[in-house]
Amino acid sequence: MGAANMEDVLEQEPDAALGNGGLGRLAACFLDSLATLAIPAMGYGIRYDYGIFKQQIVDGYQTEFPDYWLTYDNPWEIPRHDVRVDVRFGGWVREYTYVSYVSSLTVVTMMANSAMSGREVKWSKQ
Asked: How far apart are CA 19 and CA 113, in angstroms?
């Protein structure tokens, strides 16, 4: 089999633009280490529909464009339609004998599982 042409590879598997640094990358490395050490763990994150963004230079300036990395779904992700969580943005919390969120935007999220295989991990059916 001959060497792959980089343009052909990029056409088949575009960069998801995820995990480019910061705490998300650190969390991914931490989960990978836990999986490698066979330590049961769970992590929570936010999957953005458009990844981070694509960058292009337009008229000499960096310009951001959406990254359509989910065009063909994510084959590594298992949707959990039975688990939904309300996430509130903005507003403030009012406390009396109970807690209420005032003037907040509520987004209903759906959970999904993504397996972390780790290095040289032997999978079992358990």
From this structure: 17
Residue 91 DSSP label: S
Q: What is the CA radius of gyration of the chain?
A: 20
Are 31 and 116 in contact by the 8 Å Cβ rule? The answer is yes
**CA pair distance 45, 111, nearest whole angstrom:** 10
pLDDT greater than 60 at residue 6: yes
- Let me know: does 86 contact 108? Beta carbons within 8 Å: yes
Give the span between the Cα atoms of 55 and 64, in whole angstroms: 5
Closest CA to 109 of 47, 53, 52, 19: 47
Residues 6 or more apart in contact with residue 48 via CB below 8 angstroms: none
The predicted model scores a pTM of: 0.52
